[in-house]
């Protein structure tokens, strides 16, 4: 019995295996038919044989050719503009460097000029102080005679710098008109100074 069962079991396995193989062949056959239908009739040339043209040349439609030419021209114009902008940027960088150098020179010159003006102002101030002391040391009658001949604004400047007692003695020796005029100038010197 065991032999008989083994033979029956083997037969069933062969039948199932046969059905599976048949199913696979049907599926492959169905796909293979489509693959054979799509295959090219002429063989594809080898890489060394491709230099020879085998079919009609590819032509570009006229409207596409015009568009490609327009794009090429536009690209050339843009390249020219970019080069011009690069040149301008370089020129601006050079000009900026020159301006910076000149500003530095001007600042140095301005500082030197300030020092010179400060020295001149200091020297002038020293000279005016010395002359004021000279007028204060003079006899009041002699100083009054000199002040009568001076421009009122100039004379008032000296009188405003003098010690009050020396200025009073000189003013006492002036004519009433000159004393009045010098007094008006002295009183009005600071009239235009802002109060707030």
Structure explained in plain terms:
With 196 residues, the protein is mainly alpha-helical. Among the domains are: 61-124; 138-196, no CATH class. It is 79% helix and 0% strand. Helix 3 (140-149) packs across helix 5 and helix 4 (152-161) packs across helix 6. The longest helix is centred in the middle third of the chain and has 76 residues, at 62-137. It is rod-shaped, with a radius of gyration of 58 Å. The protein starts with a helix and ends in an 8-residue tail after the last helix. The model has no long low-confidence stretch (mean pLDDT 81).
Ordered list of secondary-structure elements with their pairings:
Blueprint: H1 2-38, H2 62-137, H3 140-149, H4 152-161, H5 164-172, H6 176-188
| Portion of residues within helices | over 70%
Strand count, sense and barrel status of the largest sheet are: none
The N- and C-terminal alpha carbons lie at a distance of 135 Å
Number of separate helices: 6
SSE sequence, one letter per element: HHHHHH
Features:
mainly alpha, 0% strand, rod-shaped, 196 residues, 6 helices
Summarize this entry quickly.
By secondary structure, the chain is an all-alpha fold.
């Amino acid at each position: 019995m065991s032999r008989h069962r083994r033979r029956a079991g083997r037969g069933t396995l062969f039948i199932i295996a046969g059905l599976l193989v048949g199913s696979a062949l049907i599926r492959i056959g169905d796909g293979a038919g489509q693959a054979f239908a799509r295959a090219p009739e002429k063989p594809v040339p080898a890489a060394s044989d491709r230099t020879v043209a085998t079919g009609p040349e590819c032509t570009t439609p006229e409207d596409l050719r015009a568009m490609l030419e327009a794009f090429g021209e536009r690209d050339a114009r843009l390249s020219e503009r970019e080069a011009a902008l690069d040149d301008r940027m370089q020129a601006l960088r050079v000009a900026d460097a020159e301006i910076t150098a000149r500003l530095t020179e001007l600042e140095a010159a301005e500082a030197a000029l300030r020092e010179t003006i400060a020295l001149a102002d200091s020297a002038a101030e020293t000279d005016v102080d010395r002359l004021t002391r000279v007028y204060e040391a003079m006899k009041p009658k002699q100083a009054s005679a000199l002040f009568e001949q001076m421009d009122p604004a100039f004379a008032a400047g000296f009188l405003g710098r003098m010690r009050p007692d020396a200025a009073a003695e000189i003013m006492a020796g002036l004519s009433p008109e000159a004393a009045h005029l010098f007094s008006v100038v002295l009183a009005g010197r600071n009239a235009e100074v802002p109060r707030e």
